[in-house]
Design brief:
It is elongated, with a radius of gyration of 27 Å. It folds into 3 domains: 44 residues; 81 residues, no CATH class; 139 residues, Beta Barrel (Cathepsin D, subunit A, domain 1). It is an alpha+beta fold. Helices cover 33% and strands 28% of the residues.
Length: 290
């Protein structure tokens, strides 16, 4: 209802106004018009800007154009994306036709390769995918174990088994409770047959230590073994970094190939004993009560 329509109905209901009443109605009219203008502006600002392309179009794009496609969408919709992530309490969202069609509270809720392809085929378009900046928050501090670039400095580490399509890969993982998720060398995983690159893989750019890097994510089985041979495993969505050897993840430890974040440790619940004298990590699992 417009301001004019509202005033007309008020006149019909109460008849002619005296001067104070007329002034009050005029003031109310101006307030209503301002409120309507502000609402229209807010709605315009909150509308998602961007067109979803078909799966075939995305697959045909060179990597640089894929990065530009998502980068422009992030830039144009920064406020809208932030509101959606906050309202949904999500770590990632997928957007199709200006609507969030899928979201998750954890990186591990992200669809498997087959499920993502099925979604693309079902909707006939490639979704915009946006991750919360919190996914990539890392508070690295070089402390012990793996030798770093600093003199007499080592980084705490432990052994981890990574499983994918082929035989498992045993790796030395840097422990970092300042990181939520896990990061790994994509080329190393491909070389060992752990992951396969799919044409529909979502690929984007993020930053660490003020340096950009290109990444995609893959679901992998991660397994820890304790001193008594007890093992526990968890299927995690690992952030796989392209051109790892030139990425910011080796700035502190040039030999690093895997960064183990706290989410996997919270799921597997090991007791980690850091021996600063021997510079080693003991993994212990509490036995379930019989």
């Amino acid at each position: 209802m417009t301001a004019e329509m509202l005033i007309k109905k008020v006149h019909e209901e109460f008849g002619p106004f005296d001067i104070p009443a007329e002034q009050a109605v005029e003031a109310a009219k101006k307030i209503l018009e301002r409120a309507q203008a502000e609402t229209a502006l807010q709605q315009a600002e909150e509308k998602f800007v961007g067109r979803n392309i078909a799966l075939e179009e995305y697959v045909a794009l060179p990597s640089e154009q894929k990065h530009r496609y998502f980068g422009e969408a992030k830039k144009l919709n920064r406020s809208w994306i932030e509101k959606q992530l906050n309202n949904l309490k999500a770590k990632w969202i997928m957007v199709v036709n200006d609507q969030v069609v899928l979201h998750g509270a954890s990186l591990n809720d992200y669809p498997e390769d087959e499920d993502f392809l099925e979604l693309c085929q079902k909707i006939g378009k490639y979704p915009f995918v946006f991750f919360s900046p919190m996914v990539f928050a890392i508070e690295e501090q070089p402390i012990a174990w793996h030798k770093t670039k600093a003199p007499d400095d080592f980084y705490p580490a432990t052994s981890i088994t990574i499983s994918g399509y082929k035989k498992p890969l045993r790796a030395e993982a840097d422990l970092d409770t300042g990181a939520i998720d896990c990061y790994s060398d994509l080329e190393l995983l491909i070389k060992n047959g752990i992951v396969r690159i799919q044409p529909q893989d979502f690929e984007d750019i993020s930053e660490h230590l003020s340096q950009p890097y290109v990444y995609l994510t893959k679901h992998l089985w991660l397994e820890l073994t304790d001193e008594k041979g007890v093992t526990r495993q968890f299927r995690a969505n690992v952030i796989c970094v392209k051109d790892w050897r030139n990425s910011p993840f080796i700035a502190i430890n040039p030999a690093r190939t895997f960064l183990l974040g706290r989410e996997v440790l919270l799921e597997l619940r090991p007791r980690l004993v850091l021996d600063f004298d021997a510079r080693c990590t003991e993994v212990q699992f509490k036995m379930a009560p019989s």
